[in-house]
Design a protein that fits this description.
Distance between the termini: 20 Å
Number of domains: 1
Strand content: 35-45%
CATH topology: Nuclear Transport Factor 2, Chain: A
Number of strands: 7
Helix content: 25-40%
């Protein structure tokens, strides 16, 4: 996926450079591609963080005043969200050796200026048994804050596992 994005971005930059440089539509399309890619990296890093129990990486995805509704409880701000992940989130618990993944077709991204949305499902697989042990969805609002795309609001649920 990353190689496809880099190739597309390179082609878009090349084609933009071949013109007069004033093609606003081409520049807007390029910005949209870059924003979509940056938002998708939230999902990539979420799964890397939860698979490796890297709480600092997980927290780098959140805006300072973000809210997260997880298991029916709403947490506000990075301190409360961090506390949830370190004390309650199953993937971060010492006894669980889980790998987290999202099927690519279950990712949805929208962009509208400096705001957007991101939806994905986390399929947690126990490394020892190689069985799916949990499936959780994350429906998020994201925003570009100081040049970075961050989660501002997340609502989690348990979706039905479907192909």
């Amino acid at each position: 996926m990353r190689n496809l994005f880099v190739a597309t971005l390179t082609l878009a930059l090349f084609l933009t450079g071949c013109g007069s440089g004033t093609d606003k539509q081409a520049q807007d399309r390029l910005q949209l591609l870059a924003d979509r890619y940056a938002i998708e990296q939230i999902e990539v890093n979420w799964h890397k963080a939860s698979s490796t129990k890297d709480i600092d990486l997980m927290m780098s995805l959140w805006a300072d005043d973000a809210t997260a509704t997880l298991g029916g409880q709403t947490y506000t701000g990075k301190d409360q969200i961090r506390d949830f992940f370190t004390t309650q989130a199953a993937p971060f618990q010492p006894g669980n050796d889980w790998v987290s993944d999202t099927p690519a077709y279950k990712i949805r991204v929208t962009v509208d200026g400096d705001k957007g949305t991101l939806y994905f499902e986390c399929h947690y697989v126990d490394v020892v048994t190689e069985k799916v042990v949990a499936v959780v969805s994350a429906d998020q609002d994201v925003a570009r804050i100081n040049g970075r795309w961050l989660i501002t609001r997340l609502v989690s649920a348990t979706p039905e596992l479907q192909p």
